[in-house]
């Protein structure tokens, strides 16, 4: 039986589980499986055991929301004594002398930070491979686990850790969560924005249950009330399976997942209608400009000559767009006005999370920029616009593909401040349609 983060923490608080033993077991799972899964860039084995012993000795143990829970953190996180590579050999390798906000909040809550998970260079792509490893989908290792939080998703789906931290700038929590059959929540920009990519990037949880997503979100946001998952009142749910503006074809089984989720929510008393926002034609240009210019801005602290060739192209294009003044607040404002208009008559929008199936796992970092762009654009048609708007969105597993066995999922979006509503609806989907939580289940 795979134990959840909430169950581990409750047992540790009650004195029924030893944090050191919990951590040892997690490290054993990582040692046994990560050679195939490729989830971690760095496993903090000795450090994690020391942290677990410190947690066990804390006088406030009985009050810690993540007491003794092994957590994987994305390799963009400031952790004392570590460096964040951002998937690159080109960046600074000086060790942090103190924890950043995310690590500090996790530690304060009693979590044990077992390792840093693999990301693509500068977190640009929805596939997470680096020169020293490939993050693979635990359900079928011939497929990528997604990105840029692909290592975090792989670690959770393989049952190596119960929960993981990620960041999401164009779908980087939701896409790997969908590919690996997890719950992945992108909070609104007003809750957990990290400032990256001109405000599009936010921190969020990847978990196997809705309760764990709420628990980890409450810690990351330092808002304990978010740990309680409400039962939502009757909501107006708009449903759309058409890729915004591009209208590219979506695989039948991904569309069917939305129909299945619609039936469940309708049976729970929610009103379902087929509708979508009026997406402005400038939306794609606006969010693409930020996707290019954001990493280019970050690259100022890196050695350009040591970047992968796809990254060098990306950074050059981003710098051109920045100099041309194409990162415009007016473009975002136009889209936010349209999104606000939609949510005047709807409480939630539901779409597929993926607009195509995941790509095969491989050494994508060795390929040209355009070779990476085409499949990335093909599968991420439903996600980036909500980073651009700053609205919260959640990925919820629905089933499995009959043909490939890969997970299927839906994405739910709400207006700013709607994280608890999304969690409540996700919990109703989970209750009526439970999913296999990890490959170890």
UniProtKB/TrEMBL annotation:
Residues 22-423 form the Amidase domain. GO terms for molecular function: catalytic activity. InterPro entries: Amidase, Amidase_dom, AS_sf. It holds the Pfam family Amidase. Belongs to the amidase family. PANTHER family: GLUTAMYL-TRNA(GLN) AMIDOTRANSFERASE SUBUNIT A, MITOCHONDRIAL (PTHR11895:SF7), TRANSAMIDASE (PTHR11895). This is Amidase family protein. It comes from Amycolatopsis iheyensis.
């Amino acid at each position: 039986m795979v134990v959840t983060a909430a169950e581990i923490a409750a047992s540790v608080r009650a004195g029924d589980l030893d944090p050191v033993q919990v951590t040892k077991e997690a490290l054993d799972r990582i040692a046994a499986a990560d050679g195939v899964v490729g989830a971690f860039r760095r496993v903090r084995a000795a450090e994690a055991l020391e942290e677990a012993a410190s947690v066990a000795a804390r006088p406030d143990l009985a009050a810690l929301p993540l007491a003794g829970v092994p957590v994987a953190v994305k390799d963009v996180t400031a952790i004392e004594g570590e460096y964040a590579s951002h998937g690159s050999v080109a960046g600074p390798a000086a060790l942090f002398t103190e924890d950043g906000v995310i690590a500090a909040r996790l530690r304060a809550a009693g979590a044990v930070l077992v390792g840093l998970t693999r990301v693509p260079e500068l977190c640009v792509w929805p596939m997470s491979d680096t020169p020293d490893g490939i993050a693979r989908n635990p359900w079928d290792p011939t497929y990528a686990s997604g990105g840029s939080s692909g290592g975090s998703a792989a670690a959770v789906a393989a049952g190596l850790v119960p929960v993981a931290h990620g960041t999401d700038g164009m779908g980087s929590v939701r896409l790997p969560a969908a590919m690996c059959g997890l719950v992945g929540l992108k909070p609104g920009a007003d809750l957990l924005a990290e400032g990256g990519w001109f405000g599009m990037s936010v921190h969020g949880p990847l978990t196997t249950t809705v309760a764990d997503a709420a628990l980890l979100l409450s810690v990351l946001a330092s808002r304990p009330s978010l740990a309680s998952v409400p039962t939502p009142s009757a909501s107006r749910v708009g449903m759309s399976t058409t890729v915004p503006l591009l209208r590219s074809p979506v695989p039948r089984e991904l569309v069917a997942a939305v129909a299945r989720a619609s039936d469940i929510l309708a049976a729970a008393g929610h009103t379902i209608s087929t509708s979508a926002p009026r997406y402005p034609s400038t939306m794609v240009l606006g969010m693409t400009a930020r996707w290019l210019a954001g990493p280019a801005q970050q690259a100022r602290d890196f050695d350009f000559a040591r970047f992968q060739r796809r990254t060098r192209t990306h950074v050059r294009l981003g710098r051109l767009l920045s100099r041309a003044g194409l990162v415009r607040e007016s473009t975002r404002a136009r889209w936010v006005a349209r999104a606000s208009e939609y949510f005047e008559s709807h409480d939630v929008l539901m779409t597929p999370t993926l607009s195509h199936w995941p790509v095969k796992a491989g050494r994508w970092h060795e390929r040209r920029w355009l070779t990476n762009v085409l499949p990335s654009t093909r599968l991420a048609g439903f996600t980036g616009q909500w980073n651009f708007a700053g609205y919260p969105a959640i990925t919820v597993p629905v089933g499995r593909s009959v043909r490939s066995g890969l997970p299927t999922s839906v994405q739910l979006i709400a207006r700013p401040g709607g994280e608890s509503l999304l969690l409540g609806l996700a919990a109703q989907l989970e209750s009526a349609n439970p999913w296999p939580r990890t490959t170890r289940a």
